[in-house]
Amino acid sequence: MPNFDNKEVTMSYSEKMLDQLDRGQLADAKKSFAWALRKDDDETLFNLAEELYGLGFLNQAQRVYLKLLEKYPDEDVLRTALAEIAIDNDHNDEALTYLNQITEDSDAYVPALLVAADLYQTEEQFEVTESKLLEAYQLAPDEPAVLFALGEFYNLIGKPEQAIRYYFALIQAGYLEFAKVDIAGRLGTAYAQSGHFDQALGYLEQVDPQYQSSDIRFQTGFTQLQLGKLNAAEQSLQALIDDDSQYASAYPALATVYEQENDYQQALKTVQEGLSVDQYNENLYAQAADYASHLGDDQLMDQYLQRAHEIDPDNLTITIQYSNFLLSQQRDQDNLNLLASVEDDEVVDPQVEWNRAQSYWRLEQFDQAGQAFSAALPAFEDNPDFLYQLIDYYQAVGERDLMFDQLQRYVELVPTDTEMAERLAEFEDQMY
């Protein structure tokens, strides 16, 4: 029969501590830790520090590393470990002190560069972060930790094209997973974010089931949507909603699937379900308004656009969408009141000016209409619909010369409009 007592005796104090932590015996673990510092050999202590760091016991890990550094002052790997702990504790100056002690000829120099990059990234000094990572890459271009760090950095700052290079290099080196991260998922997401949807889907569909997070599942469904694979996208996004009903981004994407199938009733229902999850998303309200428009429900469209504008009155896209609706309803004073909320910057969006012009004109405020038409003209001088209105306006206010100029321009743009061509000919006969 095995002698379990002997086995217990041969356990190191470090092993005892970790076992006690696993059992939740914190008081006993504290005692074992004290004995480990006194009795265990240095290699065992180093392994203990790594385990403690991974478990989040930063202060205890730091004590072990400091003890070892006193005995081995030339071991820079201890300094990088202490720097990481300092960063985790928001003691960046302390971390820099350790890192600055590591010279370029040290075996720990590349790991130190990675730790330094992490430090500067926490401070959002991204240019310095990038320079540290690229220096590490220059020194160790095949080191997976360096490739992973560069991929993650470019992914973080929204440069997926650059991230692709390093994630792809990891996969080429045989690393489908690194630091408990699925690299296929990262690469597929980066491809999708950079618009390379064919490549993206190939990698997203390879993601191991254990890494099929809601984010990955959404990205898969969204990518299928971009590729026009509507049935697959519908299945992916609906399954995501069934499993994670709080994943708000899935609803507008699924609604877009139904929109492309011309099922506006189901699209509206889906967005309404999304609003129950994300009730302060102005873009969802605007999307719902668009579907209500296709269903001919003006009252619901008005309700949703008004709510979207209330949530974000500075969202010019929504303001113009609401303004277009008010124009279609000939609610001109409401439209002018709405557009009065648009700040009068040095350059106002020309669509705002055009919309103002139409309401001023219908309200017979001709001077204001003329000013708004003139402000919009440079942006819409090649737009037949705008010119058509402008011609009628100039005729109404008796601006014959301006009317003639725009009539000529219109006929140049739309020579097939025989009615306007005849109107121009008549006008020319009157002039000559």
UniProtKB/TrEMBL annotation:
What highest taxon heads this organism's lineage? Bacteria
Which residues belong to the signal peptide in this entry? none
Keyword tags? Repeat, TPR repeat
- Asked if the keyword Transcription belongs to this entry, the reply reads no
Looking up Pfam families in the UniProt record yields:
TPR_16
The protein here is known as: TPR repeat-containing protein
- Annotated TPR repeats reside at 248-281
Say yes or no: keyword Repeat present: yes
